[in-house]
């Protein structure tokens, strides 16, 4: 299904997102390296808890501190996560891969090398399909994935003694993060704008959340993107000098950082100062909304990679891969395509599918037989508003999908009115409970018996002879008055359609 | 896969007996002379572990008495030998505890009360562990190496930490940052290395047995130099957890003792899979000692059916003639015992040494990167990070270690990797293939353990290439990951002195049992040779 659909999609990258400066077209070329911290219980090569936010150096042991004589032992869950993501990204998996040592000295790197994968990554040659949000013009894009590999994170340095890095006079090392498992996902240079790049990263985040391999939290650094940006005057020219941007902790910051960097580079080209674009790493400064030079690369770093002798090769069997493949949940793009086929608008599809909690809730409501459009509208309308005002996520509310499905069914079959439905919903969101019980308890069932409504109408007409006379004398606006009176008498429960029909019949009846 | 070679039934069926023997305290060395018709036990083959065990279990002696015997000798000999970097202050207390347990008839392990010395590149939680390096001076690990844990569980008495070439890099033990160890046979000579402290300690009977590590011959060459038994197990047979890594793909922990039986018991206590070492093997550990048969139970041809190949490339140029004649005599002796002897050629043999000296330093350059002065070890304060790294490492590492870090860093550098590291790995594959071919037709390959007997202290300090050349007999075995056993087999006369020579026996992976069986028979039948070093009695 997925593939049939994908084959009909044409990449339209670069068409509507070319930077226009003084009539000259420039094209930006963007590639992204993403580090995803896996949510395994323990670290990649030791049994320390892999937990964020603990007291510094409390989740450490001789192994992740790199004490003499210590050896790494691979956490199988890391391989499992890598295979899941590799499959989800449509990659070719390496049945035989290995670990390598990437060597450099830094105080946050206890062993003096990082255990990583160099020439044989566990997965390569994949792609990811994304839908650009409607507010950015919509459309489908396919971005290719070069490789996915497993590695360990380094610790953290805390420069202390001053608010600014440059003024700090000592540095503390926290090794809680050292040895936490990472997947590095390298994209092809397929993105052409900040929006595309942000959407690519957001899709990776959705994917790891859907797969349950990472919480994908950017603020905590569970998902980190290093973006390479270059521009070139024409689409068919070789790539320009690339600049790496770091330190973006949200997708919108990523988008702004990239767009800033593109315009900075384009402007330099425009002013004939293209040679001022140098290969360097730049930091995104949120305060000033610009990128600034962090360090200029002087030659290529030589990491002296060589095969990690302490770890055996990673051998995958086809059975193992197939079993994991079969266990994968529906992925974001598959879900979006399914919602699309159900007749939802692209706008609705994106809102519902892009948050895995929302999508899970939505799917559960549908599973209970609720009407698709109504379920979508309730979730994106009243429920979304409630979540926003209460600052809750959909998984935290007391309303269950079953109750929402019941509520929708009761509205649809006329048992309660939409207005009553909204009131009931507020209560269910806050307190939980069953829709039926609540309606029973409060006597909110809509009165749809024509005889009962007729007798109510008769009673009101009899009690208000003056108004009836005025109406019949031509003051037809008084219809609203009668509706109101009946509603008041029925405590809002009278079926409005039925009431209006019966009332009109009575009002206009020939004496 | 090669077919299992039929082994004499006798060897497998007879139970182990404790040989009745007492230690000789004087030494008389003479050339091999054999009496094939009647086999007699050579006293050097007597197990020190079984002797101690027997005397403790029979209440003939207490563990404290045994410990005192060794500590006294250690005190007397240490000023001349200098094999220990640290002697435990808990030996007697630990021995008392063992005595209490014996009195309560508690289950005591196979190494009960056995004084064991541990090479200082093995981590011990109650004793400093320096790896013989200034950079780890005073360092105390928070854990025991798995091999050490297993020895403790077997009831062993850890008496101290032995000297070594810094991080195992050297063949003389002169590369220690702290002291130079002497060969107990001649205190002007080196004990070999890098496990020189462990081999000298056994030779001087400062301990019953000891642990060493072997990356390119570091157990076997000093065993040969000091006239003791050295066992280098198959790569992965003993967990490396807690061994300060020199070259991870070559490092193994092994043991030294005066008898093959002791090596068998010690190996049995240490071997096995360890979940803390992903390269440790799950291959089952046989009861090595149970398969060793006392000489009384053997007929005159106990090695019938065993095929032994003499490695031609180890018996020619550059090898001391005295060493060659000792090995030749040993080969004949094995033949007399019933083995079928042939000569085998390993054409890749001479390539091993250069390949080793690319691969081992490459891994070392990486393994030693953690000694950066940041988390532990000696730190030289400096104004910036680069200088702090530079000064700490430059101050903390010795000359040989620096040389190997530089060589390894160079070999792994971009543009050189293919010409050095990758090429050396290809050579390694060739060597493995040649060994495997030779071991298809032979149960055991034999060679000298070193091209010469022990040389003088200082001889090779300024000539590293000549020191490296001395590793020619042993490095290939590490490159192939095979087990090898060194058993003292003869002497070389140098001036007035007789210096011991060891016979190296190599087998297929995880065939330690066969090596030990053959080695045990060989050692027991070495007539008129005693490998007890003269104790200094100044």
From TrEMBL, chain A:
Keywords: ATP-binding, Chloroplast, Ligase, Mitochondrion, Nucleotide-binding, Plastid, Protein biosynthesis. GO terms for cellular component: chloroplast; glutamyl-tRNA(Gln) amidotransferase complex; mitochondrion. One of its GO terms (biological process) is mitochondrial translation. This is Glutamyl-tRNA(Gln) amidotransferase subunit B, chloroplastic/mitochondrial. It is found in: Mitochondrion; Plastid, Chloroplast. InterPro entries: Asn/Gln-tRNA_amidoTrfase_suB/E (IPR017959), Asn/Gln-tRNA_Trfase_suB/E_cat (IPR006075), Asn/Gln_amidotransferase (IPR018027), Asn/Gln_tRNA_amidoTrase-B-like (IPR003789), GatB (IPR004413), GatB_C_1 (IPR042114), GatB_Yqey_C_2 (IPR023168), Gln-tRNA_amidoTrfase_suB_CS (IPR017958). It comes from Picea sitchensis. The gene is GATB. Residues 360-507 form the Asn/Gln amidotransferase domain. Allows the formation of correctly charged Asn-tRNA(Asn) or Gln-tRNA(Gln) through the transamidation of misacylated Asp-tRNA(Asn) or Glu-tRNA(Gln) in organisms which lack either or both of asparaginyl-tRNA or glutaminyl-tRNA synthetases. The reaction takes place in the presence of glutamine and ATP through an activated phospho-Asp-tRNA(Asn) or phospho-Glu-tRNA(Gln). One of its GO terms (molecular function) is glutaminyl-tRNA synthase (glutamine-hydrolyzing) activity. Pfam families: GatB_N (PF02934), GatB_Yqey (PF02637). Belongs to the GatB/GatE family. GatB subfamily.
UniProtKB/TrEMBL annotation, chain B:
The keyword Ligase applies. Residues 65-516 form the Amidase domain. It holds the Pfam family Amidase. One of its GO terms (molecular function) is hydrolase activity, acting on carbon-nitrogen (but not peptide) bonds, in linear amides. GO terms for cellular component: chloroplast stroma; glutamyl-tRNA(Gln) amidotransferase complex; mitochondrion. The keyword Ligase applies. PROSITE patterns: AMIDASES. The active site is at 119 (charge relay system), 194 (charge relay system), 218 (acyl-ester intermediate). This is Glutamyl-tRNA(Gln) amidotransferase subunit A, chloroplastic/mitochondrial. Allows the formation of correctly charged Gln-tRNA(Gln) through the transamidation of misacylated Glu-tRNA(Gln) in chloroplasts and mitochondria. The reaction takes place in the presence of glutamine and ATP through an activated gamma-phospho-Glu-tRNA(Gln). Its EC number is 6.3.5.7. Subunit of the heterotrimeric GatCAB amidotransferase (AdT) complex, composed of A, B and C subunits. It is found in: Mitochondrion; Plastid, Chloroplast stroma. This protein may be expected to contain an N-terminal transit peptide but none has been predicted. Keywords: ATP-binding, Chloroplast, Ligase, Mitochondrion, Nucleotide-binding, Plastid, Protein biosynthesis. GO terms for biological process: glutaminyl-tRNAGln biosynthesis via transamidation; mitochondrial translation. It catalyses: L-glutamyl-tRNA(Gln) + L-glutamine + ATP + H2O = L-glutaminyl-tRNA(Gln) + L-glutamate + ADP + phosphate + H(+). InterPro entries: Amidase, Amidase_CS, Amidase_dom, AS_sf, GatA. Belongs to the amidase family. GatA subfamily.
């Amino acid at each position: 299904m997925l593939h049939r659909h994908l084959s009909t999609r044409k990449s339209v990258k670069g068409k509507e997102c070319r930077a226009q400066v003084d009539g000259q077209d420039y094209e930006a070329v963007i590639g992204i390296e993403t580090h995803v911290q896996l949510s395994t219980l323990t670290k990649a090569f030791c049994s320390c808890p892999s937990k964020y936010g603990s007291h510094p150096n409390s989740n450490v042991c001789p192994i992740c501190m790199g004490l003499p004589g210590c050896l790494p032992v691979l956490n199988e869950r890391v391989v499992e996560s890598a295979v899941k993501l590799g499959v989800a990204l449509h990659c070719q998996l390496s049945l035989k891969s290995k670990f390598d040592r990437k060597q450099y000295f830094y105080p946050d790197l206890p062993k003096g090398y990082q255990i990583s994968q160099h020439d044989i990554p566990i997965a390569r040659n994949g792609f990811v399909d994304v839908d650009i949000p409607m507010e950015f013009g919509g459309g489908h894009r396919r971005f290719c994935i070069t490789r996915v590999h497993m590695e360990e994170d380094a610790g953290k340095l805390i420069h202390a003694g001053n608010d600014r890095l440059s003024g700090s006079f000592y540095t503390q090392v926290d090794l809680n993060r050292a040895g936490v498992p990472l997947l590095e996902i390298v994209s092809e240079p397929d993105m052409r704008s900040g929006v595309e790049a942000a959407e690519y990263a957001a899709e990776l985040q959705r994917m790891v959340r859907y797969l349950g391999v990472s919480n994908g939290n950017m603020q905590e650094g569970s998902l980190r993107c290093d973006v390479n940006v270059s521009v070139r005057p024409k689409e068919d020219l070789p790539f320009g000098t690339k600049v790496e941007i770091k330190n973006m902790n949200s997708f919108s910051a990523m988008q702004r950082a990239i767009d800033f960097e593109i315009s900075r580079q384009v402007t330099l080209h425009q002013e004939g100062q293209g040679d001022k674009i140098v290969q360097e790493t730049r930091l995104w400064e949120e305060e000033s909304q610009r990128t600034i030079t962090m360090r200029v690369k002087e030659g290529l770093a030589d990491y002296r990679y060589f095969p990690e002798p302490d770890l055996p090769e990673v051998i995958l069997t086809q059975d193992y891969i197939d079993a994991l493949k079969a266990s994968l949940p529906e992925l974001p793009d598959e879900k979006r395509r399914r919602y699309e086929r159900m007749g939802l608008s692209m706008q609705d599809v994106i809102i519902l599918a892009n948050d895995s909690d929302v999508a899970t809730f939505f799917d559960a409501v549908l599973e209970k037989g609720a009407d698709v459009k109504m379920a979508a509208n309730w979730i994106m309308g009243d429920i979304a508003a409630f979540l926003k005002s209460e600052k809750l996520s959909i998984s935290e509310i007391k309303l269950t999908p079953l109750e929402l499905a019941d509520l929708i069914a009761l509205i649809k079959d006329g048992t309660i009115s939409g207005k009553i439905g909204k009131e009931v919903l507020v209560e269910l969101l806050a307190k939980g409970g069953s829709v039926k019980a609540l309606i029973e308890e409060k006597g909110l069932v809509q009165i749809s018996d024509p005889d009962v409504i007729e007798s109510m109408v008769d009673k009101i007409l009899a009690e208000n002879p003056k108004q009836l006379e005025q109406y019949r004398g031509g003051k037809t606006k008084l219809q609203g008055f009668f509706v109101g009176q009946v509603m008041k008498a029925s405590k809002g429960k009278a079926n409005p359609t039925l009431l209006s029909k019966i009332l009109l019949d009575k009002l206009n009846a020939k004496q | 896969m090669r077919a299992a070679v039929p082994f004499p039934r006798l060897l497998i069926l007879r139970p182990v007996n404790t040989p009745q023997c007492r230690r000789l305290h004087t030494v008389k060395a003479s050339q091999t002379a054999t009496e094939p018709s009647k086999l007699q036990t050579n006293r050097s083959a007597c197990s020190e572990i079984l002797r101690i065990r027997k005397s403790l279990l029979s209440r003939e002696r207490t563990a404290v008495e045994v410990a005192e015997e060794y500590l006294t000798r250690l005190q007397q000999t240490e000023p001349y030998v200098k094999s220990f970097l640290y002697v435990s202050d808990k030996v007697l207390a630990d021995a008392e505890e063992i005595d209490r347990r014996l009195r309560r008839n508690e289950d005591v392990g196979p190494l009960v009360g056995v004084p064991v010395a541990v090479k200082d590149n093995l981590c011990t939680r109650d004793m400093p562990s320096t790896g013989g390096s200034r950079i780890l001076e005073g360092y105390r690990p928070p854990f025991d190496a798995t091999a050490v844990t297993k020895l403790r569980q077997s009831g062993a008495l850890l008496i101290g930490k032995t000297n070594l070439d810094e991080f195992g890099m050297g063949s003389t033990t002169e590369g220690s940052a702290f002291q130079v160890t002497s060969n107990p046979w001649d205190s002007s000579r080196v004990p070999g290395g890098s496990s020189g402290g462990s081999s000298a300690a056994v030779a001087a009977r400062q301990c019953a047995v000891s642990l060493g590590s072997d990356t390119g011959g570091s157990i076997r060459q000093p065993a040969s130099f000091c006239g003791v038994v050295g066992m280098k197990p198959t790569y992965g047979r003993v967990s490396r957890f807690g061994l300060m890594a020199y070259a991870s793909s070559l490092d193994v922990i092994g043991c030294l003792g005066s008898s093959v039986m002791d090596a068998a018991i010690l190996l049995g206590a240490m071997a096995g899979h360890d979940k803390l070492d992903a390269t440790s093997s799950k291959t089952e550990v046989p009861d090595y000692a149970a398969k060793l048969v006392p000489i009384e139970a053997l007929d005159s041809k106990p090695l019938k059916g065993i095929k032994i190949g003499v490695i031609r490339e180890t018996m020619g140029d550059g090898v001391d003639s005295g060493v060659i004649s000792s090995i030749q005599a040993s080969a004949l002796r094995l033949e007399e015992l019933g083995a079928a002897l042939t000569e085998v050629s390993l054409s890749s043999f001479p390539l091993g040494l250069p390949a080793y000296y690319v691969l081992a330093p490459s891994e070392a350059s990486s393994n030693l990167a953690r000694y950066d002065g940041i988390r532990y070890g000696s730190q030289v304060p400096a104004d910036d990070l680069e200088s702090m790294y530079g000064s700490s490492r430059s101050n903390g590492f010795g000359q040989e270690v620096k040389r190997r870090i530089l060589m390894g860093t160079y070999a792994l550098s971009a543009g050189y990797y293919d010409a050095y590291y990758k090429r050396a790995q290809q050579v390694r594959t060739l060597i493995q293939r040649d060994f495997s071919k030779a071991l298809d037709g032979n149960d055991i390959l034999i060679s000298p353990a070193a091209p010469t007997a022990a040389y003088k202290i200082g001889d090779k300090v300024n000539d590293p290439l000549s020191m490296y050349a001395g590793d020619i007999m042993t490095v290939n075995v590490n490159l192939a990951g095979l087990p090898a056993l060194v058993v003292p087999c003869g002497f070389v006369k140098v001036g007035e002195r007789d210096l011991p020579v060891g016979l190296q026996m190599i087998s297929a992976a995880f065939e330690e049992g066969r090596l030990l069986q053959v080695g045990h028979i060989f050692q027991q039948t070495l007539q008129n040779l005693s490998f007890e070093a003269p104790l200094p009695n100044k």
